[in-house]
TrEMBL record:
Aminopeptidase N is involved in the degradation of intracellular peptides generated by protein breakdown during normal growth as well as in response to nutrient starvation. It catalyses: Release of an N-terminal amino acid, Xaa-|-Yaa- from a peptide, amide or arylamide. Xaa is preferably Ala, but may be most amino acids including Pro (slow action). When a terminal hydrophobic residue is followed by a prolyl residue, the two may be released as an intact Xaa-Pro dipeptide. One of its GO terms (biological process) is proteolysis. Pfam families: DUF3458, DUF3458_C, Peptidase_M1, Peptidase_M1_N. It is an enzyme of class 3 (hydrolase). This is Aminopeptidase N.
Length: 867
């Protein structure tokens, strides 16, 4: 039986890093026997348990939301008096120092809407155990520092579940007399329970192989539902590239005979790195040119790589406790970012990663959930799979590489992998490895792991006697529980350019103080400073460079990030005052328009970069930079600027659009993708002119498109415009694609982010569309989640958007608390908004806080937001 919540509102006790204690018992071996059944599943877990410290203390196992059937030690069934059980644990009072424990449990996977533990997706069985889902399968020491060797036996109906998968290598299989069959899997690598997985169901697969540098042939399989099986090729190609890259760049090889990936439609996150059996949100596996955009293809390549790279950074070397989550996540994100940079355009990849960091991590770091990369406390671990752990964690690794150099970094990671292989370790162990392999002192650098908040760097420059002086101050705002900050050590990559564009110096400055000055002499002309090259540290830069200096960088800098950033800063000089004053400064506008014109008419060497350069700062970045956020004003001003640029530069936009051609053959090579990107950026502007001729052009592109990239771009441009046939277009798209859930996700999202007022009734209506399901996390994210990012429509001045959000969260609280908690987090920075938004959000958060039966996930977010 599934237990229901015991208290009206669940408040988890806060867990502190300082209270960490080694486990008193270890479980070196476990055998799991699953009798999988639609109605109820029986699990027999046989564990070898050994005391590792203490004496005479009881054995306390984690366990929740399942029914205990029986318990035996060394073959003898325990009586009720010999153990205690509550909603979260099982305590066996007297245990020997070494023994075999057999636990039988009964699970109801078909009722599991939380998608944690054993659940069903499209009728197939699958598991999600990170972070604490294994305790919903059996009673266990469900903590990452308890590593076990697993043998797993699965039995299921031969028709319903022809495929039976678990971790490691397959060892045996057979038929029973009763229409069931079985398979046994053995994983020789000791692993924590969060890496356990099983999949059982009716699935097809594609297969391939990879030969490792040592000559081992590995079988590669990707499983999906039969109707999706022809969409797995890109994922397979990405997997093989990832395997080669990890050998070439980190010297890491795969270590089992088989690598299985399974695509499921119902998944809380992107994917999961279970040893030898990755389970993926189908969004990050399935693609063909009709259904997936170029961005989707890139997303698949990077998530496939991310999960593969975890085999070393996470699985072979794992985390001691969940405070160390960034040990595996920050490092693995850094690894996947560099992989993607090597596979495509390094500059564009860096720009996108910085955009994402600014949109999500900077926001988080400035809100009530701000926490260090290595947090020192949490209530609900599921709430700590954050942008700070992942993205800022990756930036911290990147800075270490900058400080010790590429070769020194490789020496450090070699030492780390060799020294800690098979162990559960800490971020401290990683930093020590980098230090020891390089003879460098990272004492001050470690503050990046313990201090939260986004530092600001203030740069002042003076030029006299052929000498440029840069005075740099750093500061970091107070964050919850951390009033005062010490200065960080950080690499600041810079270059000096002459006004002619010639680079005269390139250097990495290392900041360590609150204020430091750097002098550069022998400069006959005042140079232009290319600052924070490659975004070498995750900081906010306050540096007043003149329009001319910015334009020099736009034209000449050989660092793609700085070139793009200079253009963004030029645009910010227009947009930020306009948002504040409600009107556009003509001189500032002309500067931006002229810069756009120059970009559009100059010979273009890099179309992908040009497409990025031609985009105004995102609305979310404008919000991030605002003192008191005026969401509607941001949206309206940004739209006005887009429309003016579109009208003033209609002809050059059209020329560039036409140069890209319409029906080039579908190809995923960099050149074709860059051309599509530029074409669709210019199309967006053309449609924004509001001219019927461009509506016709976009409509033609929509109908003639041979890729989803072109089709969706045209669709979006029209749906976000005043196109008179908007609704017919929306209906047409629906009729074409209603049977493809991943395409429907796009259809929902593009409508939900349309910059128009009075959208809420449409959103409510879309929720009753037959292809929408509130039980499916992708649908929730693409409709409700996307709507919350709509600065115009979500932030209605009567608060209806916020009320709608809280209604959805209340509904989701019982269905899937993890998803509910993520959704409500979007307004936990309510204090940063101007009135009336701030008060209206607060009212709705208070309404939510007063609900009975809130899950601990939601409670933590709401209570911290209102504190
Ligand atoms: N470790 C996975 C992400 C993940 C985390 C938690 C999950 O359930 C709560 C599921 C997946 C990764 O980094 O890819
Ligand atoms: Zn990960």
């Amino acid at each position: 039986m599934l237990e229901t919540d015991v208290s009206p509102t669940n408040i988890n006790p806060t867990i502190y890093l300082k209270d960490y204690q080694k486990p008193e018992f270890l479980i070196p071996e476990v055998m799991l026997d699953f009798a999988l059944n639609q109605a109820s599943t029986l699990v027999v877990a046989t564990m070898q348990v050994k005391r590792s410290s203490g004496s005479g203390t009881p054995l306390v196992l984690h366990g929740e939301k399942m029914q205990l059937v029986s318990l035996a030690i060394n073959g003898k069934t325990l009586s009720d008096a010999e153990y205690q059980i509550d909603a979260e644990s099982l305590t066996i009072l007297n245990v020997p120092d070494a023994f075999e424990l057999e636990v039988q449990t009964e699970l109801l996977p078909h009722l599991n809407t939380e998608l944690s533990g054993l659940y069903q997706s499209s009728g197939n069985f699958c598991t999600q155990c990170e972070a604490e889902g294994f305790r919903r399968i059996t009673y266990f020491l469900d903590r990452p520092d308890v590593l076990s060797v697993y043998r797993v036996r699965l039995t299921a109906d031969v028709v319903d579940c022809p495929v039976l998968l678990s971790n490691g290598n397959p060892v045996a299989s057979g038929r029973n007399d009763d229409n069931t069959h079985w398979a046994e899997w053995f994983d020789p690598h000791p692993k924590p329970s969060y890496l356990f997985a099983l999949v059982a169901g009716n699935l097809e697969h594609v297969t391939d192989h990879f030969t490792t540098a040592s000559g081992n042939k590995v079988e590669l399989n990707i499983y999906a539902q039969q109707h999706n099986i022809e969409k797995c090729d890109h994922a397979m190609a990405s997997l093989k590239k990832s395997m080669r890259w990890d050998e070439d760049v980190y010297g890491r090889e795969y270590d089992l005979d088989i690598y299985n990936i399974v695509a499921v439609d119902d998944f809380n996150m992107g994917a999961m790195e279970n040893k030898g059996l990755n389970v993926f949100n189908s969004k990050y596996v399935l693609a063909n040119q009709d259904t997936a955009t170029d961005l989707d293809y890139e997303g698949i390549e990077s998530v496939i790589a991310h999960e593969y790279f975890h085999n070393w950074s996470g699985n072979r070397v794992t985390c001691r406790d969940w405070f160390q989550l960034s040990l595996k996540e920050g490092f693995t994100v850094f690894r996947d970012q560099e992989f993607s940079a090597d596979m495509g355009s390094r500059a564009v990849k860096r720009i996108r990663d910085v955009q994402s960091l600014r949109a999500f991590q900077f926001k988080e770091d400035a809100g009530p959930m701000a926490h260090p990369v290595r947090p020192d406390s949490y209530q609900e671990i599921n709430n700590f799979y954050t942008s700070t752990i992942y993205q800022k964690g990756a930036e911290v690794i990147r800075m270490m590489r900058e400080l010790v150099g590429v070769e020194g970094f490789r020496r450090g990671t070699d030492l780390y992998f060799d020294r800690f292989d098979g162990q559960a370790v800490t971020t401290e162990d990683f930093v020590t490895s980098i230090e020891q392999a390089n003879d460098i002192d990272l004492a001050q650098f470690r503050l990046w792991y313990t201090q939260s908040g986004t530092p600001s760097i203030r740069v002042q420059q003076s030029y006299t006697d052929q000498t440029l002086t840069l005075t740099i101050q750093q500061s970091c705002p107070a964050t919850p529980g951390q009033d005062r900050k010490r200065p960080f050590q950080m690499p600041l990559c810079i270059a000096l350019l002459l006004p002619s564009g010639e680079k005269v110096l390139q250097q990495t400055l290392v900041l360590t103080e609150d204020e430091q000055s750097f002098e550069f002499s022998g400069l006959p002309e005042q140079p232009v400073v290319s600052m924070l090259r490659g975004f070498s540290a995750p900081v906010k830069l306050e540096y007043n460079q003149s329009d001319d200096e910015l334009l020099t960088l736009v034209s000449f800098d050989d660092d793609g990030f700085v070139r793009w950033e200079a253009m963004q800063r030029l645009c910010l000089k227009l947009l930020l005052p306009a948002v504040e004053n409600g009107s556009i400064n003509e001189a500032a506008y002309s500067r931006v328009r002229d810069a756009f014109l120059k970009l559009l008419t100059e010979p273009c060497h890099d179309k992908a970069m040009l497409a990025e350069m031609l985009s105004l700062p995102t609305a979310s970045y404008l919000a991030e930079l605002s003192e008191a956020i005026e969401p509607r004003q941001i949206s309206l001003i940004r739209q006005q600027c887009v429309q003016r640029l579109a009208k003033d530069l209609e002809s050059p936009f059209h020329t560039v659009y036409a140069q890209q051609g319409q029906n080039t053959d579908f190809s995923l090579d960099a050149e074709s993708m860059a051309s599509r990107s530029l074409k669709n950026r210019t199309l967006m502007y053309l449609v924004a002119t509001g001219q019927p001729a461009y509506y016709a052009l976009a409509s033609h592109q929509y109908h003639a498109a041979n890729t989803m990239t072109d089709r969706l771009s045209a669709f979006t441009a029209l749906v976000h415009s005043s196109y008179p046939d908007r609704q017919a277009l929306i209906d047409h798209f629906y009729q074409q694609w209603k049977d493809d859930p991943l395409v429907m996700d796009k259809w929902f999202a593009m409508q939900a982010i349309a910059p128009r007022d009075n959208l809420l009734p449409d959103i409510e209506q879309l929720m009753s569309n037959p292809t929408f399901s509130i039980n499916n996390p992708n649908k929730v994210r693409s409709l409700i989640g996307a709507f919350t990012s709509n600065l115009l429509a979500f932030h209605q001045q009567d608060g209806a958007g916020y009320k709608f959000l809280v209604d959805c969260v209340i509904q989701l609280n019982t269905i899937n608390p993890q998803v509910a908690a993520r959704l409500i987090s979007t307004i936990n920075n309510w204090r940063r908004y101007a009135q009336p938004y701030q008060s209206l959000m607060c009212t709705q958060l208070e309404r939510l806080a007063n609900e009975n039966g809130l899950a601990s996930d939601v409670t933590e977010i709401v209570s911290k937001a209102l504190k």
